[in-house]
Write a structure and sequence with these properties.
This protein has 149 residues and is of the alpha+beta class. The protein is 30% helix and 35% strand. The strands form two sheets. Strands 1-2-3 form a three-stranded antiparallel beta sheet, with no helix packed on it. Strand 4 and strand 5 form a beta hairpin. The model has no long low-confidence stretch (mean pLDDT 95).
Length: 149
């Protein structure tokens, strides 16, 4: 896996702290910093997600992917899956994630709660590289809402 991240601020773009990532799979992702009222030249313009927001989003995508795949492989009639992540970071540098709560909403027909809980557990214990990696600095908790359709 590879990725090239380039600073766009030197090119005279609107934000002095903008970055574009070009992934090995041929996709791009734009990131920007927060506005810094005290030092505007060092801040971004809030034109795109912050880099740490993309880490959190990637973790959500990783674990949701696992949950859906595990349920489908178990021949469960899963129709939807979303995960809302809420994270807290350390107050001093490095401002790593210290707590992450993931609330899953899984929609389907006749989904056994135990199967969904098992899929979430397997994702966090075995398959989701992102959440396993973040689990080294953050306490990760989960919640679940099942929606029958």
């Amino acid at each position: 896996m590879e990725c090239t991240v380039s600073w766009t601020g030197a090119a005279g773009t609107r934000s002095g702290m903008g970055f574009v990532a070009e992934t090995g799979s041929g996709h791009t992702l734009v990131m920007d910093g927060a506005i810094d009222a005290a030092r505007p030249d060092n801040g971004g313009q809030n034109l795109a997600p912050r880099p740490m927001e993309t880490v959190l989003a990637g973790t959500g995508g990783c674990t949701a992917y696992d949950v859906v795949l595990i349920l489908k492989r178990g021949r469960h009639d899963v129709r939807g899956c979303s995960v809302r992540l809420n994270a807290q970071r350390a107050e001093t540098d490095p401002k790593v994630f210290t707590r992450i709560h993931m609330h899953f909403t899984v929609t389907g027909r006749n989904l056994p709660r135990e199967a969904v809980e098992r899929a979430i557990a397997l994702s966090h214990e075995k398959y989701c590289s992102a959440s396993i990696m973040l689990g080294h600095t953050a306490q990760i908790s989960t919640g679940l809402e099942l929606v029958e359709i």
